[in-house]
Amino acid sequence: MYSACSCVDDAFITMMNMAQHQKYPLAKKLVFGLPSIAMALLIFYFSSLERIDLPLDEISFNDLIFHFLAYFLFGLSLLLAAYPWSAKTPYPLSTIFILILIGVCYAASDEIHQGFVPNRNCSFIDFLADSVGVAASIVIGSRFVRKADRNRI
Fold it and tell me: What residues does each domain of the chain span?
């Protein structure tokens, strides 16, 4: 029987194997991670603002659209950051799981952070939009990487 603990163990082993993979030099690996760091900082900056005037007031749920899009881009940047570390380029499910987990944990911390910002609140609906955005981008993006690698062969 395959339990959640063994899934996490497999994911940890996969990450350790990825860290030992020398497909790219360390400096290049860090460059691949810069967009993720930039997106995380940008998301943190906007969630620190007391008020954000959204340009699309006539569209209902525009806040959820912006949450989804911001975390969709964050998920793509996480996928890019994992690329030089991955020994297998169709990403294994454990790698996809870890990337989604990183994105969802950051979304949770962002919503908790907003609870401490004046005139902002911690919203479970926003967290769901963030989580769906990051998961969708990682799943869709990993499919494109798989297709690109098949076409390269």
Answer: 4-49+60-152
CA–chain centroid gap for 43, Å, is 12
Distances (CA, A) of 126 to 9, 61, 89, 111: 30, 10, 32, 8
**Segment (H or E) for 145:** helix 124-152
* 53-85 residue pLDDT tens: 666 555 456 778 889 999 999 999 999 888 777
State if pTM tops 0.85: no
Compute how many other C-beta atoms are within 10 angstroms of the C-beta atom of residue 12: 12
Distance CA(104)–CA(106), nearest Å, equals 5
**Residue 129 contacts residue 73 (beta carbons within 8 Å):** no
Helices and strands (H and E) in the chain: how many: 5, 0
